[in-house]
Amino acid sequence: MIKGLATTGSSTSTTVQARWVPNVTDPTHTAEVTTHLDNVLPALESLRSQSGRLSAWGTELATRLLSGQRLLAAGNGGSAAEAQHLTAELVGRFDEERAPFSAISLHAESSAVTALSNDYGYEEVFARQVRAHGRAGDVLLLLSTSGRSPNLLKAARAARERGIATWALTGPGPNPLSDACDQAITVDAIAANAQEGHLIAIHAVCRAFDAEVAQRAGSSSFGAGQP
Asked: Single Gene Ontology BP term (predicted)?
C-alpha cells in the first residue's frame, strides 16, 4: 500500500479506489504552526492588560441595552464575521438563558449592503446605515485589524454626529480608527492573531455583559428584566 493511501474494494468489483489518509505525525510544517500558536500569546497578554476596559464595555453595554438602546456593529471580511458573532450572542444568548437585546450587524443584510455600495460607494455603506438605525445613546462597535478601513472611519464620524457612543476593536494602536472613536481596545499582535484576539475580547465582553444583566435582574430571574 502506498504510504498515506488506503484502498477499498468489494467482492463484486476488481476496481481499487485510493483515498488519501493524512499522516498526523508528519512534521513538515510543525514549525509554522508552532510559530502561529506562539504569536497568539502577545494577543492574550495585550487583552489581559486591558481587562478593566473589557469589563467596563460589558457593563456599559448592559446598562444601555437594558435602557432600550441598541448595539450596531460592523467590520470587513473576518472582522464582519466577528461583529456578527457578537450581535448573535446578544440577540440570542451567550451562556445562560436571558432576555434578547437589540443588536444589528450593518454588513449582514446583503440587499442593503449591495444597494448602498452601488448607489453611494462602499465607503458609505456603514455610515448611511448608522444614520438610518442609530439613535443617541446607542453604541457602535467597529472591528478592524488595520484600523484604517475608510468605511469604518466614515461610520464612526456619522455616529459621533448623532450622539452614538463609538468603540473600536483593532489591531496595534494607535491607528486612525482608534483615534476616531470614543474608546478603543487595541490588540498588540500581527493581523491574524489580532483577529483571533478579537473573538476572545468579544467573549470577554459578553461574559461581563451577562454578569451585569444577571446582577440587575436578580439571581432568581436571570436576564428577565428589560424595561
From this structure: carbohydrate derivative metabolic process
Q: What's the CA gap between 58 and 55, in Å, rounded?
A: 5
Could you tell me which residues come within 8 angstroms of residue 190 by beta carbon, excluding any fewer than 6 positions away? 39, 171
Q: Which amino acid is at 174?
A: P
Distance (Å, whole) CA 103 – CA 206: 13
DSSP H or E stretch at residue 154: helix 150-161
The residue behind cell 445613546 is 137
pLDDT of residue 226: 45
pLDDT at 15: 58
**C-alpha cell belonging to residue 130:** 448608522
* Cα–Cα distance for residue pair 134/70, rounded to 1 Å: 8
Q: Could you report the per-residue pLDDT of 97-123, keeping only the tens digit for each?
A: 999 999 999 999 999 999 999 999 999
Give the residues of the chain that fall short of pLDDT 70.
1-17, 21-24, 219-227
CA within 13 Å, CB half, 7 = 9
What is the per-residue pLDDT for 224?
39
